[in-house]
Write the structure tokens for this entry.
Amino acid sequence: MIVMGPSIVISLLITGLSLAILPYQALSKEVVLPQTVSVSSKPSSLNFEYFENVLPTLGELKDNVCRQTPSGIGIPGFQPGLRKSDVTGMLGVPAVSSSGYWRKTRAVSYELIPNQVSLGFLFDRNSERIRQTEIAFTPGVDSELIEVTFNGMLGCKLNDSIKRGLQQVWRRQSNRYKFNLGSLEGVIERDKSDRVYIGIWEADLH
């Protein structure tokens, strides 16, 4: 068996193959692949034909994103209200953990793919549930993948109006779009590093 670091598998979705299984449950572990897969530090050494045969389609990503808790397929979109244990059980120990800006919250962040995809959360200190969820993508990340992840963060309630706002920011037609959806509020914007930032929080938090 050949052992492949999870970050290599994750990066396939961002840098070449449009579809990939991202093994979140094992971010702090190693992923075992069949002997037929050639692995080295150079991406060109990977057997991409193998991945094209076993990786899920975008339709499968969309089907899985509507589960309440992310399934481990695609970039995880955690909804407000989910438990801290749902996050740490899938992503492991955060890169940063500190007191949150808002009262009685704890802030944590993950570099899911260094310099490409970052995740952040504000947890309620008492209930340990997500009060705010956020994600930032660099321009090289596929826009359809961003949309699928965003839909998961909204509990599969992404509507046409919010989708247009995402597209406007992505296409640089607007720098910022704010929205309300039921008990949630959110913002989509270009940050100072030119990343697309998405933040969603429970309306009574701010």
